[in-house]
C-alpha cells in the first residue's frame, strides 16, 4: 500500500436546472459552512487550512480568473489558493500531489458551475477549439461526442435501444439520489421516440443543463483523525491526454482512459478492477459513454459494450448508482460529483443506493470533446 | 448592459452581459502557409512525417509521435476524399456555420493519413454514408480559415474500368469473316474490346520533360500498375539506367520486366527491340531472346529518326534508324520462334509494304499486330486518309493499333477506336494531356483513352481479352 490521503468530509447542494436566485458564491457558501461545522477545521495558519483548491471555468462564469469571484467565500484570502481549470477530478489529483509531497497537509477543495447562466453551453465548448481548423465548422462537445458515439456504437455493437436503457436507468437512479437533478422519469420507448439531436445521439442522450457546487476537506493520513472518525481514502490517481485533432485520434479506442486507469490502478495496487472494486462512477456526458468508459476502466470487454449492457454489467459492477453525469452535473464538475458518490458509498452514507460492504470505488471523468483527456481516481474505505 | 428582475424574487436583478473581445489570432507559419495556399491556389496541403510516413492535415510543425520536425515537409493533397464518420447537427446555435440540419463529417482526403472535420452538403442527409466519396467545394470569398473550403459535396461516383469489365460479358472470338471485309465497309464491330497500351518511357523522354517518367524498375512497376488500374491491358517498355539512359543491359531489362510482372502479373509487357539510339542489331534482339516477353516491337524500315524543330525546320539531332530487310526478317523469325509476338511498327505505308513483302516467307503467325506510328521526324504526320489507306492495306486477320508523337496522339487514337482498332498512349509518345498540361503519368493518358472508348461505346479489353485478340501466349 502506497501513501494515501483522507477525504474527511464532503458537502454539496442539489443539482438543479437553474439556481436563478442564487449567485454561485451563495452556492459555495452552502457547501463551505457544513464542512467547517462538521470537521471544526479552522483557518489557523499553523494548524488549519492554508491551501485551497477551487475548480471553475472562465467561460461558464464569463470572467477570466473565475476563482477571483469566490476566493472570499471559500476562505482563500491570505493563504494559498490554486484553481483547477480542467475537469474537477484533476483537482483531487492535484491535492494528492500537494499532500503526499508534504507541501501541505490540509486542503479545502471546492468547485462551482452555473451552466444555466450562459446563453449556450454549446457555444462555450465551441470556444475550446482552435479558431482556424475546428471552431469555424461549429464543432462543440455535443456534435463531437456524437461523432464518437457513431464510431463507438459501431465498434461495440451498442444500439439505440441500449442507449435508451442507459437513460432510463440514469434517471431512475438519480431519483434515489437526494442531490440528483430532478428529471422526468421516462420509459425506453419515450427515449426511442424522442427527438434526434446530433445523430446518432438524441437530446435525451446528453446530460441536461445543470447548476451545482460542492466542497471536500482533504488531509494527510496523519491528521485525518482530527477531522473525522471515518475517513475515506484516495489511494490512486492517473491521467492521460490524447491528441487534439479528432482525426488524429481513434475516438472509439479509449486510448487515454485505458492509460489513466492503468496508472491509477498501479498506484492503488488494483490488479483486476472487476474483482477488486465494488463501485464505479463514470462521467457519461452522453449515454454511449457509459458502456464506453466501462470498457476503458476494464469492467466491460473491449468492443462488447452492447453485450455488457445486455448481460447486466451496469448492475453487476454498481455503475453510476448516483445517476451519473447523464442525470445532470455541470461540465467540469462531473468528476467531483463521481468522487462524492464514491465517498458516500465507502462511508456507508449512500442511503437507498448503498452497496453493502463497498470497500473500494473508482471515479472517472473526462475533459474535452469525445474524452480527449481522462482521469481516474481510486478511493477506499 | 440591461437589467431584468428575476421572476418571484422581485428585489433580485440579473445583469445581461456579453463576452465579446475582438481578437487577432496568428495562425503560425505552418498554419499560414496552409491557409494562404488554400485561399490563393485552391490547394489543400498537408505535411508528411518522413519518420512515420503519416500525412497530417491540418498541417503542423512537429510530428507528435516521433518529434520529427515536419514544418517543411509539404505535400499536396487531392481535393477528393472519403467520409470516415459523420453526425447530423439538428440544433441551431450562433456558433454553427449552417442552419440545422446539416452534416458535420470526418473526411479523409486522398493522400492524407488522417481525416479532418468539415461540412458535407449538396446531398440528402439520409444518403450520407461512411465510405462515400466526396470532393471539396472552394469558397468564393476567403475567411482565412478552413472555411476557404466552403464545404464538401458527393464526388461523381465513377466505377473503375475493372468493375465495369467484371459486370459485362467477356468477349469471345467468333467465326465471322475476316476483319478486312468489315473494315473496308467502314463498319467495324464496336462491341469488340479495344486494347489500350501505355508506352511508359520510350528511349528519349526524360524527367526534365516530365518528372513522371520512370527510370528504376520499381518506378516502372508502380507506373505500370497505375496504367493497368486505369484500363491499360499492355505496357510498352524501354528499360532505363538510374540516370535515365536507355539500356540494352540484360540484367537491367529483366529487373524492369520482372518488377512489372511482380506488381501486376496479368499485365501484358511489350519490350522494345529498338532499345535506343546507336544500339547494334545484336544488342537489340538478344535481350528479347533472353527475356522472352509477351510481345516485342518490330521495326519495318530504315528511316530518318531525328529531332527537328517543327516550326523552323531546324535539325537538332540527325539520326538514321536502321531496320534493314535482313533485320526485319531475322528479328521477326527469332521472335516467333521464341513465342514472342511481334508488334509491327509502321511509320508509313512503306513499312507496311516491307512487312507484307518479307512476310511472304511465312515468318509471321496470325493474327499479325500492326502499330501505325505518326509524327516521328522521318516518318509521316497523322492524316485521317493516310490512316484509312494503311488500314485498308492490312492482311485479312491483322489487328491494328496506333500511336502519335506529341499532339498527334489523341486524334490518331480516337480515329483508331472509331475504326475498330486499338489505342496506344504514354509518355514515350507525348508528355501532355489534351489541354496541354503535363500528364501526371502515362496512366492519366490511359484515362483519356478509356474516355474515348466510353464515348464510342466500346468495351475496354481486359488483359485476357487482349491476349485472345492479339494471339499472345496464355498467362
Overview of this protein structure:
Chain A has helices spanning 24-39, 58-61, 89-100, 121-126, 141-156, 160-175, 188-192, 255-268, 273-276, 289-296, 305-310, 313-316, 334-346, and strands at 5-12, 51-55, 80-84, 106-114, 196-198, 201-202, 211-220, 232-241, 279-281, 360-367, 373-380. Chain A is α/β, with parallel strands linked by helices and 381 residues long. Chain A has a domain at 5-119 and 209-226: Peroxisomal Thiolase, Chain A, domain 1 (3-Layer(aba) Sandwich). In chain A, helix 3 packs across helix 13. The mean pLDDT of chain A is 97. Chain B has helices spanning 28-41, 161-167, 179-184, 217-230, 250-263, 281-291, 325-337, 349-358, 384-392, 409-418, 442-456, 463-470; strands spanning 2-6, 9-16, 44-48, 55-56, 74-77, 80-89, 102-109, 116-120, 133-138, 149-154, 196-199, 234-237, 268-271, 295-299, 303-304, 307-308, 315-317, 320-321, 341-346, 369-374, 399-404, 423-425. In chain B, the strands form 6 sheets. An 8-stranded parallel beta sheet of chain B has the order 21-20-19-14-13-12-11-22. In chain B, strands 8-7-6-9-10 form a 5-stranded antiparallel beta sheet, with no helix packed on it. Chain B contains 12 helices and 22 strands. With 475 residues, chain B is an alpha/beta fold. Chain B has 2 domains: 28-154, no CATH class; 164-470, Alpha-Beta Barrel (TIM Barrel). The chains are: A alpha/beta (381), B alpha/beta (475). Chain A binds chain B through residues 20-21, 59, 62, 119-120, 122-123, 126, 131-140, 142-143, 146-147, 149-151, 195-201, 243, 245-248, 251, and chain B through 6-9, 12, 14, 17, 19, 25, 27, 31, 35, 56-58, 64, 84-91, 93-98, 104, 106, 108, 114-119, 143, 145-147.
Amino acid at each position: 500500500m502506497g501513501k494515501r490521503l483522507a477525504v474527511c468530509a464532503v458537502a454539496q447542494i442539489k443539482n438543479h436546472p437553474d439556481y436563478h436566485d442564487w449567485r454561485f458564491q451563495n452556492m459555495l457558501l452552502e457547501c463551505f459552512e457544513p464542512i467547517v461545522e462538521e470537521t471544526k477545521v479552522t483557518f489557523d495558519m499553523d494548524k488549519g487550512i492554508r491551501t485551497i483548491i477551487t475548480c471553475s471555468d472562465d467561460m461558464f462564469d464569463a470572467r477570466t480568473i473565475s476563482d477571483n469571484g469566490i476566493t472570499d467565500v471559500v476562505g482563500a484570502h491570505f493563504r494559498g489558493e490554486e484553481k483547477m481549470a480542467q475537469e474537477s477530478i484533476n483537482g483531487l489529483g492535484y491535492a494528492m500531489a500537494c499532500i503526499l509531497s508534504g507541501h501541505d497537509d490540509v486542503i479545502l477543495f471546492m468547485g462551482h458551475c452555473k451552466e444555466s447562466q450562459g446563453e449556450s453551453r454549446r457555444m462555450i465548448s465551441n470556444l475550446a477549439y482552435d479558431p482556424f481548423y475546428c471552431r469555424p465548422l461549429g464543432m462543440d462537445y455535443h456534435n463531437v461526442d456524437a461523432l464518437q458515439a457513431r464510431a463507438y456504437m459501431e465498434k461495440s455493437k451498442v444500439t439505440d435501444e441500449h442507449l435508451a436503457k442507459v437513460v432510463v436507468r440514469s434517471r431512475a437512479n438519480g431519483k434515489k439520489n437526494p442531490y440528483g437533478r430532478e428529471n422526468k422519469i421516462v420509459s425506453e420507448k419515450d427515449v426511442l421516440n424522442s427527438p434526434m439531436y446530433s445523430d446518432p445521439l438524441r437530446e435525451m442522450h446528453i446530460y441536461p443543463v445543470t447548476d451545482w457546487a460542492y466542497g471536500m476537506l482533504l488531509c494527510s493520513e496523519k491528521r485525518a483523525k482530527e477531522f473525522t472518525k471515518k475517513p475515506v481514502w484516495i489511494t490512486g490517481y492517473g491521467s492521460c491526454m490524447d491528441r487534439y485533432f479528432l482525426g488524429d485520434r481513434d475516438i472509439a479506442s479509449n486510448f487515454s482512459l485505458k492509460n489513466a486507469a492503468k496508472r491509477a490502478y498501479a498506484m492503488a495496487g488494483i490488479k483486476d478492477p472487476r474483482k477488486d472494486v465494488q463501485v464505479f462512477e463514470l462521467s457519461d456526458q452522453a449515454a454511449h459513454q457509459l458502456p464506453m468508459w466501462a470498457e476503458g476502466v476494464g469492467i466491460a470487454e473491449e468492443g462488447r459494450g452492447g453485450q455488457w449492457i445486455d448481460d447486466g454489467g451496469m448492475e453487476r459492477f454498481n455503475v453510476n448508482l448516483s445517476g451519473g453525469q447523464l442525470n445532470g452535473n455541470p461540465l467540469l464538475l462531473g468528476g467531483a460529483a463521481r468522487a462524492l458518490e464514491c465517498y458516500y458509498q465507502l462511508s456507508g452514507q449512500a442511503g437507498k443506493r448503498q452497496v453493502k460492504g463497498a470497500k473500494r470505488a473508482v471515479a472517472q471523468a473526462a475533459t474535452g470533446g469525445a474524452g480527449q483527456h481522462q482521469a481516474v481516481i481510486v478511493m477506499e474505505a | 448592459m440591461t437589467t431584468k428582475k428575476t421572476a418571484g424574487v422581485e428585489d433580485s436583478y440579473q445583469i445581461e452581459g456579453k463576452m465579446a473581445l475582438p481578437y487577432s489570432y496568428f495562425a503560425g507559419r505552418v498554419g499560414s502557409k496552409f491557409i494562404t495556399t488554400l485561399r490563393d491556389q485552391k490547394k489543400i496541403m498537408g505535411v508528411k512525417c518522413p519518420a512515420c510516413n503519416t500525412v497530417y492535415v491540418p498541417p503542423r510543425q512537429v510530428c507528435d509521435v516521433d518529434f520529427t520536425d515536419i514544418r517543411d515537409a509539404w505535400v499536396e493533397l487531392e481535393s477528393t476524399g472519403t467520409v470516415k464518420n459523420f453526425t447530423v447537427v439538428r440544433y441551431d446555435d450562433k456558433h454553427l456555420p449552417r442552419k440545422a440540419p446539416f452534416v458535420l463529417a470526418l473526411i479523409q482526403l486522398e493522400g492524407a493519413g488522417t481525416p479532418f472535420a468539415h461540412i458535407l452538403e449538396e446531398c440528402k442527409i439520409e444518403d450520407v454514408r461512411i465510405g462515400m466519396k466526396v470532393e471539396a467545394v472552394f469558397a468564393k470569398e476567403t475567411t482565412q480559415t478552413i472555411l476557404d473550403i466552403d464545404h464538401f459535396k458527393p464526388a461523381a461516383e465513377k466505377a473503375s474500368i475493372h468493375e465495369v469489365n467484371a459486370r459485362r460479358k467477356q468477349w469471345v472470338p467468333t467465326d465471322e469473316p475476316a476483319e478486312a471485309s468489315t473494315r473496308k465497309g467502314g463498319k467495324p464491330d464496336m462491341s469488340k474490346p479495344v486494347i489500350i497500351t501505355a508506352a511508359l518511357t520510350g528511349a528519349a523522354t526524360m524527367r526534365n520533360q516530365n518528372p513522371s517518367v520512370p527510370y528504376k524498375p520499381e518506378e516502372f512497376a508502380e507506373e505500370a500498375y497505375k496504367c493497368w488500374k486505369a484500363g491499360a491491358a499492355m505496357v510498352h517498355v524501354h528499360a532505363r539506367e538510374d540516370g535515365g539512359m536507355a539500356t540494352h543491359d540484360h540484367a537491367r531489362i529483366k529487373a524492369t520486366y520482372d518488377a512489372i510482372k511482380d506488381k501486376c502479373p496479368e499485365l501484358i509487357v511489350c519490350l522494345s527491340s529498338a532499345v535506343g539510339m546507336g544500339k547494334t542489331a545484336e544488342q537489340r534482339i538478344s535481350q528479347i531472346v533472353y527475356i522472352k516477353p509477351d510481345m516485342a516491337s518490330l521495326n519495318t524500315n530504315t528511316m530518318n529518326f531525328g529531332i527537328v524543330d517543327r516550326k523552323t525546320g531546324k535539325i537538332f539531332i540527325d539520326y538514321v534508324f536502321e531496320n534493314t530487310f535482313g533485320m526485319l526478317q531475322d528479328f521477326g523469325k527469332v521472335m516467333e520462334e521464341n513465342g514472342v509476338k511481334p508488334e509491327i511498327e509502321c511509320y508509313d505505308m512503306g513499312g507496311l509494304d516491307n512487312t507484307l513483302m518479307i512476310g511472304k516467307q511465312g515468318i509471321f503467325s496470325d493474327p499479325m499486330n500492326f502499330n501505325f506510328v505518326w509524327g516521328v521526324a522521318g516518318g509521316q504526320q497523322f492524316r485521317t486518309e493516310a490512316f484509312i489507306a494503311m488500314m485498308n492495306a492490312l492482311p485479312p486477320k491483322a489487328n491494328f493499333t496506333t500511336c502519335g508523337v506529341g499532339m498527334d496522339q489523341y486524334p490518331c487514337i480516337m480515329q483508331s477506336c472509331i475504326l475498330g482498332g486499338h489505342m496506344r498512349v504514354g509518355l514515350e509518345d507525348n508528355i501532355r494531356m489534351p489541354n496541354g498540361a503535363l500528364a501526371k503519368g502515362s496512366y492519366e493518358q490511359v484515362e483519356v483513352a478509356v474516355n474515348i472508348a466510353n464515348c464510342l461505346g466500346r468495351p475496354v479489353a481486359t488483359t485476357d481479352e487482349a491476349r485472345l485478340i492479339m494471339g499472345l501466349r496464355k498467362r
